[in-house]
Structures are given as structure tokens and as C-alpha cells.
Amino acid sequence: MAETQRAYVPAKKIPTDYPLIDSDPHFKRVMRYTRPSDYAQGAATAACGPALMLLWERVAPSYVGRGGFAPIMRLTSVISLGAGFLVFYQTSALRFYGFTENKREYDMDMREMVDKVKKGEPLYGRSDMSPYLQGVASRNSRYTGLWLHVIPWFNFVNHEQHGVDTAKYYRQAEREMDAERTGEVAS
What we know:
The chain is mainly alpha-helical. It has helices at about 25-30, 35-60, 70-95, 105-120, 130-140, 165-185. Helix 2 packs antiparallel against helix 3 (about 70-95) and helix 4 (about 105-120) crosses helix 6 (about 165-185). The model has no long low-confidence stretch (mean pLDDT about 90).
């Protein structure tokens, strides 16, 4: 019985001011490429909830009595920490999509991928999943960083469907290896 080939669904190209690095970045990759300013934004967001609760308690006291305010503050802190993490993650993920300035991340991506090409490793890691399931995972998590405020959804699957032309990494690796070879010959 012949096996049928499933159709490949390419990632939609969204016009942006900056280059697309990855339309479906892996969770670990987003975390690795995070800037200190992303951490500051997330921390500021996380601090806003408890600060507002304290301010409201001062402006309009709740008079809940002994032990009534602490559980509310704990709940507010947990919710604010979650919101701070989502803001921090989304700020970093938007750079992968090319929606915000991403020169640093673009250079880091090029360096990481060219090094992987030189070592002969797969660009986006190995996966034990079938190509079909990798495609499903990719289609379900493309551009999900835009909707973190609705449903926090992250990519934890290694796959090859990232919406970018990977030939640029191979061309750059070839240029660098040629330069190294000619540099060795000239020495």
C-alpha cells in the first residue's frame, strides 16, 4: 500500500519592519535571547499588582480584619508574577517575529545556526515525533506569542517549520569555512 504525502502548510509571511527570525520559536530559545530590558519590563508588570493593592488599601481601606488582607495580597502577587512572566516572554518573542527591533537577536540567531551547520547538527534540534505531528505542533504554535494574553501557549517541540529560508545559514557557513580555508592557506 502506498503511503500518501501530507500537504506542507507554509508559515504565513507577515510584512514587518524588521527581519523575521522565527515564526515559531522554541520556548528555550525565546528565554535564551531575552534582553535585560525584558526582565525589567516583566518585573515592573509583576510589581504593579501588589503595589496597586497596597495603594487601594490606603486610599479606601477594606476593613477586612485581622488576616483578611494577606490572602488577597498573596493571590494578587501570584497573578502579577504570571502577568509579569507573560509580558517578559511576549516582549522577547515579538523580536523573533520581526515586530520590534531585533538586530541583536538576528545576529545571535545567525551565529547559533551557522555554528550548528559547521558542526553538522540539525538547525532546530532533534525530535522523536513524526513529521506529521511536528507539523501539527508547528501549525498550533505559530505566532502564539501575539495571543499570550488570551491563551498562554508555547512551543516545546523541535521541528523544521519556522517560516524562514534556512539556506542563508548554509551560505554563511560556507563563506566562513572558505574564509578559514583561505586564511589557513595564506598563513
